[in-house]
TrEMBL record:
High-level lineage: Bacteria, Pseudomonadati, Bacteroidota, Cytophagia, Cytophagales
Family, per entry: Belongs to the universal stress protein A family.
Pfam family of the protein (one): Usp
Provenance organism: Hymenobacter artigasi
Residue ranges of every copy of the UspA domain listed in the record: 1-158, 166-287
InterPro entries with a match to the protein in the record: Rossmann-like_a/b/a_fold, Universal_stress_UspA, UspA
Protein name as catalogued: Nucleotide-binding universal stress UspA family protein
Domain of life: Bacteria
């Protein structure tokens, strides 16, 4: 997780993500690429009045699109200036961390996914909720879509992290045979944060059973975890149980493996990862099962 992509809409939430990415890059010897996606007139089919284009799909009277193009060019110039300002800020926040910037002209979700491929990113760090007409990257639909479709881990950040020191990691699972596919990703997390305690969490609608604990211990052995604790919590929903337990142990990071396919373990359904990523207080890392 050294080649980090940070989509930004210049909101406070995306700045929190940028700060976390810089700290991660400094810890791992990695690099950071800042990305802003502009929905250009050529690639937008809906309402992009924010950029001076058609409103609800209709052209301005007597317009051949020239004004739109001029406005888009000016917006590109302003965007590059804001990205360069963030790069200058990075020199103070994390001296020595290489930071580059890029602008994609596309729909927001598609632009981020294409940038992951183009830049060879192995981690996306992004804000979970942005607000305002110009700052609309991180409404739930875009965050959730990225969690479902990105081929690399996605770290969502909702609040400012003065220091991103990971001491307590919550890893929820049902620890069935299918959870074996989550081991490789968890081992990467453990390697990145070797001093952290991994809390293996089973969310249930009843009391913890001996079988549950046995499954957790067996999983810990397969994953070769060096520092872990087992836990079980009863909750009305899996996502609510994860969020409640994360608060109880003052988690610095929640790690959730996911898979969008249906018919498999309920815990690995992408909807649960999406709900936790957009609601839980600490940063949440999601990745696809092997």
């Amino acid at each position: 997780m050294k080649n980090i992509l940070v989509p930004t809409d210049f909101s406070a939430e995306s700045h929190h993500a940028f700060e976390v990415a810089l700290q991660l890059a400094r810890q791992t010897g990695g690099t950071v690429t800042l990305l802003h996606v502009l929905e250009a007139p050529e690639t937008t089919t809906g309402n992009f009045s924010t950029y001076g284009g058609p409103v609800n799909g209709s052209e301005l009277p007597n317009s051949d699109g020239g004004i739109d193009k001029i406005f888009f060019i000016k917006l590109m110039e302003v965007t590059k200036g804001r990205l360069h300002a963030l790069r200058n800020e990075a020199e103070t926040l994390a001296p020595g961390v290489p930071v580059t910037d890029a602008v994609e002209a596309d729909r927001i979700g598609d632009g981020i996914l294409k940038a992951v491929e183009r830049h060879g990113s192995d981690l996306v760090v992004m804000g979970a909720q942005g607000h305002g007409a110009m700052e609309n990257f991180f409404v739930g639909s875009n965050t959730e879509r990225l969690i479902r479709l990105a081929k690399v881990p996605v770290l969502t950040v909702k609040h400012q992290q003065s220091t991103f020191e990971v001491r307590n990691i919550v890893f929820p699972s049902d620890f069935t045979e299918e959870s074996t596919g989550a081991i490789a990703g968890l081992q990467q997390v453990q390697a990145a944060f070797p001093n952290a305690v991994v809390h293996l969490l089973h969310v249930t609608n009843g009391a913890e059973t001996t079988t549950t604990r046995q499954h957790e211990l067996a999983f810990a052995e397969r994953a070769q975890l060096t520092s872990f604790q087992t836990a079980s919590i009863s909750a009305d929903s899996t996502s609510a149980g994860i969020e409640q337990f994360a608060r109880q142990v003052s988690a610095d990071l929640v790690v959730i493996p996911t898979r969008a396919r249906s018919g498999l373990s309920r815990l690995f359904q992408s909807s649960i990862a999406e709900a936790v990523a957009t609601n839980a207080f600490p940063p949440v890392l999601t990745y696809h099962l092997a």
